[in-house]
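Researcher: Structure for this, please.
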Amino acid sequence: MTTGLKGNIWKYFVYTLTQRRSFYTLLAILFLTLPNSNAKQIGIYAAAGSFASFLLEIPTGYFADRFGHKKTLVISKIVMILSTLCFIFANSLVYFVVGSILLSASFALMSGTQEAFVHNTLIALKREKEYTKIMSKLVANVSLLSGLIIVLLPFLTKYSMLLPFYITLITDLIGLGVIITSVVPSQKFRAEDYSIKSFFRAIKQGASPGFYSLSMLVGAIGGFITADTNYRYVYLTSLGFPIILVGFVMGLSRFFWFIVGHSAHIIEKKLGIEKMLLLEIIFFPLCYFLTVLSNNPYFIAFVFSLYVGYFWGRKQIITNHFLTKFIKNKNYKATMLSVSSQIENIYEFVAAFSIGFVMRISYKAGFLTLGIMLLIIMSIMYYLFNKKKKK
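Model: Predicted structure, token format:
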């Protein structure tokens, strides 16, 4: 295996794979094995985690830029280990609440930081232009492997419900060791980049023209897709889709993610971000409309897998453009990427809350509404994005 700066790439692969929570589908089942627990309480620890994620997203990005990306990734893994321990030793709802908060904190510390760490590594290796190609393939491979683990882990529960969690704890320790041995890339920035010590000034001065309009555009896509997660599988089962095949829908989306991820650098080169986003204004709303026009659950499952897999597969193209063209102060990469992620979180909250009322009428009405809303928002934000870029 390669060492030094080159070794950061495979070490990041291992680290990212061990950060995936492949046991997440089993978490609610584990919780219900506790005495005096019930299904309604699942929402309590889930809400606690979501709220912590919302609060910590931007501050953790700023912390990473000030404290150091590698150190922050190490802290993120330690916090993740504590989260896993909470679930293993849980004997009440409190443990799950604390575990969920720590889980969200770990992901918040990782968000933006990981991209900045790899981007700085590639700059030091003089391979900055390969960011989309390297990162897309790497994350796509992680997704495919984690998808296989998600399918396999439930089989271990016939021996012990906690066995998947103990295995995750072992992989977490491996991930911690790997990230500790990574090398910090040396970077040279303008002297004035270091003079900004205020969190709010960093946000204000870190963005180039077009940053916020692009964040509003891509954030709408991510927010809506995340918001519809809780409704996809219940919609499918309401149409007669076998419950035992639900896992294969997730697996198929990971396969599409793998394919698109390995082709992302080609998409970026052939289309460019403007043409890609213009096509996405048609693609994502169209996918929502297709889920409404058909009553065939297998066709709808295919559409779900397609747009989810494509969304995640091409995500590094967006990140690369933020890093290279829309973040003015290169010393605050993690901060600005976290700002963009927070905008997506706001979309997710608004979409999930509002669409819930429509979903009560029918799932078809809900997905139709999502398609119409996304088409309108993306069209407006694309116009503003182009307008900002021309100034």
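Researcher: Any notable elements?
Model: Residues 264-293 form the longest helix (30 residues). The two ends are 47 Å apart (CA to CA).
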